[in-house]
Design brief:
Glycosyltransferase, 54% helix, signal, MUG_Protein
Length: 350
């Protein structure tokens, strides 16, 4: 299938998290990366067996690239990317997945679909287990970082679009619970979740990059609409912890990857691009960098991608921080993750 899709106008542009393109070399690299992603992996309106939450992230990246590039090349992706997954999304009780889908729909201007999947996620809210927050799935026995962090960000994005006060309340309530939970480790990074033994302690699960980045836009919306300065200091502390604890030689690294081995699956190869892109989203909404610290970090990640992950003609591997020892992988997820970083850098001032 051609990578250029039919053109439709983008709605809800006023509520977009984007800023205009400022650093063209990264935008140019992103355009090529996106074309490769679509030409190799997007067929018959979808990404084949790739899980729908990753397709939602891809759609979000592509929507933002269209705005950066002043185009509507990928505006039809959202109309078909979930077609094969509707049953799973509607009935699968995967409360993190549906929020990625809600964000993608809202970014594309489809409020009705965004609300539908947000409402599915909202059924996971419970104060009867660990005192609050959302369950991860229909088993209702696990409260984890990503589901709750996404609810903070999705609620903020929904409030930004609709100004319905319930969304802001949901953001505030979930953030208050998450802060009070034991999910953050002593190094300032969120572990995967809480123990499901009734004690609701930190489970010492992996501190993935996206478990830190996913809530940053939500904190930006909290600051934007309430003036809560602690939302900024919390976000800065999380980004500082990312820089200190999840990088090697200045480049983001997941614990499942190294220069001579890769144990990251398709999900995990997606995480770094989300983290960097959501850092940019935070800066765009809040307008609050710490000097140029986080802008500089975003640009540095794109530079790492262009130094270590890049292959011939705009293809990208999962390895950002060092020279490939022969085990880096080249997949749809690694391509989209690099795309997220390049878009984020393109939103900054050169």
């Amino acid at each position: 299938m051609p990578s250029t899709l039919s053109l439709v106008s983008l709605a809800f542009l006023a509520s977009s998290p984007l800023v205009a393109a400022k650093c063209q070399k990264y935008v140019d690299a992103a355009v090529t990366a996106a074309a490769n992603l679509q030409s190799a992996y997007f067929t018959n309106g979808g990404y084949g067996s790739q899980q729908p939450w990753i397709g939602a992230v891809d759609s979000f990246h592509l929507s933002e690239l269209d705005t950066l590039a002043g185009a509507s090349t990928y505006s039809d992706v959202i109309n078909t990317v979930f077609t094969a997954w509707t049953g799973q999304l509607d009935n699968g009780n995967s409360y993190d997945d549906v929020q990625w889908v809600s964000i993608a729909y809202l970014r594309a201007g489809n409020l009705a679909q965004a609300q539908k999947y947000y409402d599915i996620a909202s059924t996971a809210v419970s104060t009867d287990y660990c005192g609050g927050g959302l369950f991860w799935n229909g088993n209702h026995d696990y409260k984890n970082a990503i589901t709750n962090e996404l609810y903070i960000t999705t609620s903020g994005f929904m409030y930004d679009t609709t100004k319905d006060a319930q969304y802001l309340t949901n953001l505030q309530t979930t953030w208050a619970w998450l802060k009070a939970s034991k999910m953050m480790g002593s190094n300032g990074l969120f572990n995967d979740g809480l123990t499901n033994d009734g004690n609701c302690n930190n489970n010492q699960g992996t501190q993935w990059t996206y478990n830190q980045g996913a809530l940053l836009p939500g904190l930006a919306y909290l600051y934007k609409y309430t003036g809560d300065e602690s939302a900024i200091t919390s976000a800065w502390a999380i980004m500082d912890a990312i820089i200190m604890g999840l990088t090697v030689d200045g480049g983001l690294r997941e614990s499942c990857e190294s220069t001579d081995a890769n144990l990251c699956n398709a999900d995990q190869q997606t995480f770094k691009g989300i983290t960097v892109h959501y850092m940019s989203w935070f800066l765009s909404v809040s307008g609050r960098d710490n000097g140029s610290k986080y802008t500089g970090f975003i640009v540095a990640q794109a530079d790492k991608v262009l130094q270590f992950a890049v292959g011939p003609a705009g293809w990208y591997s999962n390895l950002w921080y060092g020279i490939n020892g022969g085990q880096a992988t080249w997949t749809a997820s690694s391509q989209a993750s690099a795309l997220g970083a390049l878009i984020a850098a393109g939103q900054q001032n050169c």
